[in-house]
């Protein structure tokens, strides 16, 4: 019931507005905020409050003489042509659609008139053709809508205060989806939302940023036209090994991979990354320098085997490959069975009750390359045979600290005693007392 | 110097209208880059730099003495060090500290901006003006932006410099300095 009544009221108001719009009036005169406010007043009998135009303080720089500015009315003496560019500059980035959308749809807040009218008033030249060709009837339609919308808003949101002008500029055009309760058919309304939202032709600013091909020299144009599109040649996915092989000076992938391993181990022993150089960082060392490392590390395998056989299960359990190398940094309880915590490597080996048979097999199955990677925190200064390295790292590290007595040379013990006595006994109460004692040192 | 025994408010005055900078109402000062000042000291030579530093130190000592009430005889070690450190900081010459090694007095200055010769002379001038004692400062070490200066009498300072030049460690020099001094000389001089 209420909706029908409202619709009827809206239609009647629309008819009145259209009838008023058809009345002859000065077509050459552009509508101003005052005109629309008067029209709204005449239609509704209410007063549309016109909010003052907010001029940014930047306009102060445009004043010819700052001494003549009245602080109470700083822009009273400024002509409109001085104020207009500043306002236009402030409002130009805002598209017209954003400004006028609240005037066409029922919003949650009653939209004021100023932004849309300001856009019309201060942008007469830069306005797109779509808005410049709107007749006076369109402005009358807008005025009628401006009057209608507060009425709708009052019924839905009576408690909300009206929004100010600057807030309207930021208001998104989402109210039409929320106010689907009201469907008002405006008939052949001359206002077409799409005409302003998507202008058919680019604006002057956009044209200014475009590249005019006609102004380019002929050689450049020909170059642009004749330039063939780049042929799409998908790069064949290459494994990392091929990338490594493509390095200048590198050998075949297989040989390169074999020679990289000792290099990695050498860096691990020096305290570097457990995986050697990082992939993609260009830190890979070429095999020219690592060849010597390969030669020195290659005999480590039999040495490790021999050492593993000698040490028994101690080495074998440590040499077992583990999927988690980081966990190998801590002593494994299985390995330490029967070993007194804190015992040395020799004690651990001798305390082992019986060697296990799988120990040599584990050592043989384990290449010497992986084991150093499992010990990234090994404080070993130089590369050592793999078996020895494992044995050292798995055992509790014993650092033998030799007590070093640093005695002052060429200083007699009597002098030291005097100095110590002075440190212990001398307690000056004043600065001058201490200064006198210090100046007395060494004689005069 | 938040707990300085005296008020540093208005210690440095910038009279922008006159283009004048003064410290505690003293004569006009000139703010110059420290590097350029060091270069100037190097170019001026040891004697000129020492004279320049002594002049700076004397003014610092006078202001410290004023802050201590006109006499430093009864001033505690902490109070004297705070006053002298405040003056040194106002000059931009570094942060002053003091260490006691037996009976030896060591001044530590944390600064890389001050010229060494100028700083030594400034410390000597300040101590001499504030206490009335003639003292020489010998640089024992300079590491990590901290310099240690031994405060000694002139003869002992020369000997210490010779020992340091001979390669002795400054710890050994300090110990030997205590042994060379007559026993029971505490508080003398």
Q: What can you see in these coordinates?
A:
Chain A is mostly helical and 444 residues long. Chain A folds into 2 domains: 199 residues, no CATH class; 149 residues, no CATH class. Chain A is 50% helix and 0% strand. Chain A contains 23 helices and no strands. In chain A, helix 14 crosses helix 15 and helix 16 crosses helix 17. Chain A is elongated, with a radius of gyration of 45 Å. Chain A starts with a helix and ends in a 5-residue tail after the last helix. Chain B has 189 residues and is of the alpha+beta class. Chain B has a single domain, classed as H-NOX domain (Alpha-Beta Complex), CATH 3.90.1520. Chain B is 46% helix and 21% strand. Chain B contains 6 helices and 7 strands; from the N terminus they run βββαααββαββαα. In chain B, the strands form 2 sheets. Chain B has a 4-stranded antiparallel β-sheet with strand order 4-5-7-6, with helices on both faces. A 3-stranded antiparallel β-sheet of chain B has the order 1-2-3, with no helix packed on it. In chain B, helix 2 packs across helix 3. The longest helix of chain B has 22 residues. Classes of the chains: A mainly alpha (444), B alpha+beta (189). At the A-B interface, helix 22 and helix 23 of A face helix 3, helix 5 and helix 6 of B.
Largest interface: A-B, 31 and 45 residues
Low-confidence stretches of chain B: 183-189
End-to-end gap of chain B:
32 Å
Overall mean pLDDT of chain B stands at: 87
What amount of the residues of chain B lies in strands? 15-25%
The backbone outline of chain B, from C-alpha atoms, is globular
- Write down the domain tally of chain B: 1
The best one-word shape of chain A is elongated
Oligomer: heterodimer
- CATH fold call of chain B: H-NOX domain
CATH class type of chain B:
Alpha Beta
Please state roughly what percent of the residues of chain A sit in beta strands, choosing from under 5%, 5-15%, 15-25%, 25-35%, 35-45% or over 45%: under 5%
Q: Please count the helical segments of chain B.
A: 6
Distance between the termini of chain A: 117 Å
């Amino acid at each position: 019931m209420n909706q029908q009544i409202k619709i009827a009221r809206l239609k009647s108001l629309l008819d009145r507005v259209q009838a008023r719009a058809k009345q002859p009036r000065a077509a050459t005169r552009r509508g101003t905020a005052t005109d629309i406010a008067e029209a709204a007043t005449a239609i509704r009998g209410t007063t549309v409050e016109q909010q003052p135009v907010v001029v940014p303080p930047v306009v102060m720089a445009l004043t010819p003489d700052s001494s003549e500015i009245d602080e109470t009315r700083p822009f009273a003496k400024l002509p409109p042509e001085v104020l207009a560019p500043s306002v236009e500059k402030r409002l130009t980035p805002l598209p017209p659609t954003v400004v006028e959308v609240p005037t066409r749809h029922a919003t949650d807040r009653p939209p004021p008139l100023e932004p849309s009218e300001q856009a019309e008033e201060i942008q007469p030249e830069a306005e797109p053709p779509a808005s410049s060709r709107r007749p006076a009837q369109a402005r009358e339609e807008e005025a009628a809508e401006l009057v209608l919308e507060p009425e709708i808003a009052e019924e839905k949101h009576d408690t909300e205060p009206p929004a100010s002008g600057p807030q309207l500029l930021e208001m998104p055009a989402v109210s039409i989806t929320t106010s689907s309760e009201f469907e008002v058919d405006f008939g052949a309304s001359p206002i077409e939302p799409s005409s302003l939202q998507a202008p058919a032709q680019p604006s002057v600013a956009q044209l200014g940023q475009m590249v005019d091909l006609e102004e380019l020299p002929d050689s450049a144009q020909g170059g642009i036209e004749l330039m063939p599109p780049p042929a799409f040649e998908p790069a064949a996915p290459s494994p990392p090994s091929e990338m490594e092989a493509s390095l200048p000076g590198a050998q075949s992938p297989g040989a390169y991979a074999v020679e990289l391993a000792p290099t990695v181990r050498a860096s691990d022993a020096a305290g570097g990354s457990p995986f050697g150089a990082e992939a993609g960082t260009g830190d890979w060392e070429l095999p020219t320098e690592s060849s010597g490392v390969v030669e020195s590390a290659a005999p480590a395998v039999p040495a490790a085997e021999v050492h593993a056989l000698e040490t028994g299960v101690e080495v074998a359990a440590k040499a077992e490959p583990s999927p988690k190398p980081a966990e190998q940094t801590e002593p494994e309880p299985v390995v330490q069975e029967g070993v007194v915590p804190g015992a040395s490597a020799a004690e651990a080996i001798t305390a082992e009750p019986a060697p296990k048979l799988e120990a040599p097999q584990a050592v043989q199955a384990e290449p010497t390359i992986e084991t150093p990677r499992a010990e990234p925190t090994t404080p070993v200064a130089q590369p050592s045979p793999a078996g020895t390295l494992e044995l050292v790292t798995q055992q509790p590290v014993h650092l033998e600290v030799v007590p070093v007595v640093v005695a002052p040379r060429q200083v007699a013990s009597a002098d030291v005693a005097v100095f110590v006595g002075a440190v212990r006994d001398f307690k000056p109460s004043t600065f001058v007392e201490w200064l006198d004692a210090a100046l007395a040192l060494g004689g005069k | 110097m938040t707990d300085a025994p005296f008020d540093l408010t208005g210690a440095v005055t910038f009279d922008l209208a006159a283009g004048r900078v003064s410290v505690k109402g003293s004569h006009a000062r000139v703010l110059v880059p420290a590097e350029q000042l060091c270069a100037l000291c190097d170019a001026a030579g040891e004697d000129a730099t020492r004279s320049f530093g002594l002049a700076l130190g004397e003014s610092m000592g006078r202001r410290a003495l004023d802050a201590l009430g006109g006499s430093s005889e009864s001033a505690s070690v902490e109070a004297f060090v705070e006053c002298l450190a405040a003056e040194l900081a106002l000059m931009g010459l570094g942060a002053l500290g003091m260490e006691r090694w037996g009976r030896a007095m060591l001044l530590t200055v944390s600064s890389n901006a001050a010229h060494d010769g100028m700083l030594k002379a400034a410390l000597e001038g300040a101590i001499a003006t504030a206490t009335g004692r003639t003292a020489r400062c010998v640089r024992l070490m300079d590491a990590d932006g901290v310099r240690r200066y031994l405060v000694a009498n002139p003869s002992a300072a020369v000997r210490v410099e010779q020992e340091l030049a001979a390669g002795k460690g400054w710890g050994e020099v300090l110990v030997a300095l205590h042994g060379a001094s007559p026993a029971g000389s505490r508080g003398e001089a």
